[in-house]
Amino acid sequence: MKILVLNCGSSSLKYQLIDMDTESVMAKGLCERIGIEGSRLKHQPVGKEDVIFNDYMEDHSVAVKMVLDALTNSEYGVVKSMSEINAVGHRVVHGGEYFANSVVITPEVIEAIEKCCELAPLHNPANLIGIHACEKIMPGVPQVAVFDTAFHQTMPERAYLYAIPYEYYEKYKIRRYGFHGTSHRFVSEEVAKMMDRPYDQTKTITCHLGNGGSVCAVRNGKSIDTTMGFTPLEGLVMGTRAGDVDAAVVTFLMEKENLTPQEMDNILNKKSGVLGISGVSSDFRDIEDASEHGNERAGMALDVFAYKVAKRIGAYAAAMNGVDAIVFTAGLGENSASTRRLICDYLGFLGVHIDSYNNSLRGKAIEISAPDSRVRVFVIPTNEELVIARDTKELLDK
């Protein structure tokens, strides 16, 4: 079975074609600037040269058509025809309280996703565009939706309710949803395999650390708490997002600076985080370089970030009454040995000890804790596309 995995943004489309017999990627690529001058498709077929197309893509339907043409091209394609593609798996950001699992896409599912657009106005509409584009270009091919929020639907009320009047939860579904669920699920399953322990008998804290970041407490295979909330703004300090902040700061700044809600939202989502503290960049690599060259604010940004992550790890160890493993994943979590070291230096109370050599390695799943560490610590590259493909195959097999 061959499954096309799509991740649609407002003006972008990432894709992978995966052969599920071997779970190997046949081709992957990215369409950029859809509907904007300077559209570009980078197609990367395994075993062949990358191909770049600088053709204008009017909308996502055109982009999907270009992707399919590239995949089936006699020279740089990887399948002979579209008929070899058995299904499409879509990343959908927000499933609200409607979806606790991945689902085959039906008109009723599309309607529910549309209802969640208010909760994820930047993401769900783009995800729907990708779904409708595939309906148009690939009629009759089954499609599956895999939700970022679904894994966290196992959180208990004590974890997801906000202490605001309950009527706002009832009227507007204002609650904590959590995100990065596909990634947290993948690495928590993988670490159980690496430890040779049953997934439903482990206590794991997963740290998805990139430009956006979240920490998740996974007890016995279920998410019981996570740092992101009603939106991805809550929780950790991130690249440009403020994370947790006293709500009174928001109204105070709006009055002092005469800001509109939209302007305040832009500050919290686009101008804050390590960018706001350091004044250097939202890219942790730039901040690490600036810190090494004596930039005190850059060093401060790294310290704040590591402290906030470590504090959540400690809180989740308490929430689960113990922890067997801590996992680092995503761009920063997988690639920055110094960030992992900064975080783990706070975790001596848990008996965490890091092996410096293993911590310096990159690009593979590895245990980085020392033999005498009471809690095992791992780095595991995430693979959300494979989760989407696996869920798609499982649903179609049923």
UniProtKB/TrEMBL annotation:
Q: Which amino acids does the record list as binding substrate? A: R91
Tell me where on the tree of life, at the top rank, the source sits: Bacteria
GO CC annotation: cytoplasm
The protein's enzyme class: transferase
Q: Which Gene3D superfamilies match?
A: 3.30.420.40
GO terms for biological process?
acetate metabolic process; acetyl-CoA biosynthetic process
Q: Which reaction does it catalyse?
A: acetate + ATP = acetyl phosphate + ADP
Swiss-Prot/TrEMBL cofactor(s): Mg(2+); Mn(2+)
Q: How is the cofactor bound?
A: Mg(2+). Can also accept Mn(2+).
Alphabetically sorted, this entry's keywords are: ATP-binding, Cytoplasm, Kinase, Magnesium, Metal-binding, Nucleotide-binding, Transferase
Where does the chain bind ATP? Answer: K14, H208, L209, G210, N211, G212, D283, F284, R285, G331, L332, G333, E334, N335
CDD domains in the record: ASKHA_NBD_AcK_PK
Q: What EC number(s) does this enzyme carry?
A: 2.7.2.1
Enzyme active site: D148 (proton donor/acceptor)
| GO molecular function term, any single one | magnesium ion binding
What is its biological role?
Answer: Catalyzes the formation of acetyl phosphate from acetate and ATP. Can also catalyze the reverse reaction.
Q: How does it assemble?
A: Homodimer.
Q: Which family does it belong to?
A: Belongs to the acetokinase family.
Q: NCBIfam families, alphabetically?
A: ackA
Q: What is this protein called?
A: Acetate kinase
| The species this protein was found in | Anaerotignum lactatifermentans
Name the gene that codes for it.
ackA
